[in-house]
Amino acid sequence: MDLPLPPSADIDLARWIRPGDGVLWGQANAEPLTLVSALADQHARLVGCKVFLGIHQSGLLTPEHAGALRFSAYCGSAANRRLADAGVLDPLPAPYSSFPALIRAGVLKVDVLLLQVSPADAQGRHSLGLACEYLASALDVARVVIAEVNDQVPWTEGDTWLDARRIDVAVTASYAPLSTPETRTGPVERGIAAYVADLVEDGATLQCGLGAVPEAVLAALGQHRRLGVHSGTVGNGVMTLMQAGALTNEAKGRDFGVGVAGVLMGSSALHRFAHRNPALALRRTEYTHNPEVLASLSRFTAINSAIEVDLTGQVNAELASGSYVGAVGGAGDFLRGAHRSPGGLPIVALPSTAGSRSRIVARLSGPVSTSRSDAGVFVTEHGVADLRGLTLSARIERMLSIAHPDQRAALEQQAGAPLHGAA
Question: Model pTM greater than 0.90?
Answer without folding.
Answer: yes
